[in-house]
Amino acid sequence: MKNEIKTEYQKALDKSLKNMASSLPIMFSILLLISLINVFGKDYYSKIFSGNLVSDSFVGAIAGSFSFGIPITSYIVGGELLKEGVSLIAVAAFIMTWTTVGVMMLPLEAKYLGKRLAVVRNVTNFVFSIIIAVLTVATMNLFQ
């Protein structure tokens, strides 16, 4: 019985290692693209926002979708954007998409979850990020 369990465990481990090895080139490419976009886009975020609430939320969501980061760093980036004069609605949309939409991760996500699910998930998160950004700012304005 123990040999059967060990064999199943070994099969699962081997399969996991093969999957990880096959995804490494994709992950490396994604990280390289993210690094390049974050380096070249870093100083331009404050320049691409017009001050219009509708376009700023859309631009913020697009910028966040192409950037990528972990949630804890999104608050730091969001704070810096606010210091540079970017509107709160744009920062809210940026933070939401920064953490939930991954355009750069789409190939990897499609490989493991399927193209349709990956696209539907990202589009849904994009749309709801804009809606939540608008509702967040509207709610804050009610209580000020």
Molecular structure report:
The protein has six helices and no strands. By secondary structure, the protein is an all-alpha fold. The protein has one domain. Helix 2 runs parallel beside helix 4, helix 3 runs antiparallel to helix 4 and helix 5 packs across helix 6. The termini are far apart.
| Class by SSE composition | mainly alpha
Largest sheet: none
Q: For the terminal residues, how far apart are their CA atoms?
A: 67 Å
Average per-residue pLDDT, rounded, comes to 82
**Total helical elements:** 6
C-alpha-based Rg, rounded: 19 Å
Helical content class: over 70%
The count of DSSP E runs of length 2 or more, i.e. the number of strands, is 0
Write the H/E string, N to C. HHHHHH
> What is the general shape?
elongated
* Number of structural domains: 1
Low-confidence stretches: none
Strand content: under 5%
Chain-wise SSE layout:
Elements: H1 2-41, H2 53-66, H3 71-83, H4 88-100, H5 106-113, H6 115-142
Which short descriptors sum up this protein?
144 residues
Short description:
The chain is mainly alpha-helical and 144 residues long. The protein is 81% helix and 0% strand.
